[in-house]
Amino acid sequence: MAESDGNSAKRPTIYDLAEIAGTSPSAVSSILNGTWKKRRISEKLAERVSRIAAEQGYAVNLQASLLRRERSRIIGMIVPKYDNRYFGAIAEQFEIMARARGLFPVITCTQRDPDLEFEAARELISYQAECLIVTGATDPDRIGEFCAAAGVRAINLDLPGSNAPSIVSDNFTGARDLTALILSRMERDFGEIRPLWFIGGRSKDHNTAERLRGFRAAHRQIGLSVLPDQIIMPGYSPHKAIAAMATKTLADRSGLFVNSTITLEGVIHWLNEQRHGSGDIRLGCFDWDPFAALLPQNVGMTEQNVPAMLETTFELVETPPTGNVRIEIPCILREISPAAITR
């Protein structure tokens, strides 16, 4: 076969590649599907065939080749959001770490839609994903049941489930320590302490519930009670945060615990609309963003340890645990210097 000039409509086949390379079609197939070492094919021939395949624009029929292989080496992940530093970091580092282990990562964003989450899981399994990392899913048990029925392993990340291993942040301790920091800074800066506002999240969400528990615990440690009216949980959306806070009256020298950097966008927008100066509000945010750390009202942020969470995830991928364990990864409290706040 003459080499293609790039204008031919005919797609090359393994038979065409074998003719050009001067070898058998079965050797070409083994080289392209990665099993050539088992057949003791020379590395020199493997490199030549791979180069010719690239020059000829040959593309492996993925689904067909998967049917002939013992393992796909595909590892799937669903994530709820890309436009968030935390989930963006999870997706990016997951790809790097998967490739370093010889796995092929496939990631899809599900927008916190439970039906879309389930459909994404089903599609990933149809492409022979060997393991599915279910990140921040609204209904992880539904996905876990489906994976178990399909004979595919699932691991929950960020939000736990009951029928698969789970790796989550230590939300309780992270929130307790952040709350204590905000309260101490209010005492230092204002000479008084009053209960904080808790803003963002969903009441049925495990992470929100654990953060609220830590928030209350920090108040109890210094003899303060939080009024129900000061717990605002409209979800994570900035727009929902703005709408919810519009019904509240925020006094000067107030303190805020903000339950995500997504919610923080709405909180800052609302504060600016209300003309609250930088000196009469103190806030802290659960999750880390270096730009948000520059906000004049911000005294600290809780960073979830993404590298440690993913290292633990891949340990479970490589060595499946006995039972549906739940592993909590400590968070990192980042205090922002008082000098960074303009009073």
UniProtKB/TrEMBL annotation:
Keyword Repressor appears in the UniProt entry: yes
Gene Ontology terms for molecular function: DNA-binding transcription factor activity; transcription cis-regulatory region binding
InterPro entries per the UniProt record, alphabetical: HTH_LacI (IPR000843), Lambda_DNA-bd_dom_sf (IPR010982), Peripla_BP/Lac1_sug-bd_dom (IPR001761), Peripla_BP_I (IPR028082)
Record-annotated HTH lacI-type domain positions: 12-69
CDD domains given in the database record: HTH_LacI, PBP1_FruR
PANTHER family reported for this sequence: CATABOLITE REPRESSOR_ACTIVATOR, LACI-RELATED TRANSCRIPTIONAL REPRESSOR
Protein name per Swiss-Prot or TrEMBL: LacI family DNA-binding transcriptional regulator
